[in-house]
Design goal:
Number of strands: 2
Order of helices and strands: EEH
Oligomer: single chain
Shape: globular
Strand order of the largest sheet: 1-2
Radius of gyration: 16 Å
Distance between the termini: 20 Å
Structural class: alpha+beta
Number of helices: 1
Amino acid sequence: MDERLDEPYCETSDTRPVPADSGPPYAECVLCRKPTEYPEPVKGVTLCPVCDWQEAQRTACSG
């Protein structure tokens, strides 16, 4: 039996920032500039829920 069948087809990294607990100011979405659920000083790519969902759809495995 082929051992590669047990390996995931594509792996995703879960390196998302932690959502804000305390409220505004929120970071802007890097695609649409709308407020995200992340605090303003978060480093890295921040996406609003809509753009995050759309990006997940674009990068999803299709196999």
